[in-house]
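Q: What residues go here?
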């Protein structure tokens, strides 16, 4: 496995971990909309159910962006691959 293949795998995994946290929130949304104010405060503030979404999720998001930038640098001499990778890092 070359460095570029390994870094591509790392980038894809970090991005998928980051997106999985967002998808979890999206799938919970219909049920959470039905919560009354007291239940919502109890679940999110007092029981701190989402405590790791901020710390671990932020590490995944920042890591995936940085990994995509490094991957764009690694493939900079590969023509259209570079432009697709750069576009993915920017978006």
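A:
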């Amino acid at each position: 496995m070359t460095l570029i293949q390994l870094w591509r795998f790392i980038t894809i995994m970090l991005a998928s971990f980051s997106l999985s946290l967002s998808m979890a929130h999206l799938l919970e949304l219909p049920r959470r909309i039905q919560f009354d104010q007291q239940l919502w405060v109890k679940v999110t503030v007092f029981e701190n159910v989402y405590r790791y979404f901020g710390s671990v999720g932020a590490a995944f998001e920042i890591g995936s962006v940085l990994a995509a930038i490094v991957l764009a640098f690694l493939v900079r001499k590969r023509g259209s691959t570079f432009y697709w990778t750069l576009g993915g890092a920017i978006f």
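A: Context that may help when evaluating the design: The CA atoms of residues 25 and 32 lie 9 Å apart. Helices lie at 3-33, 37-46, 51-74, 80-90.
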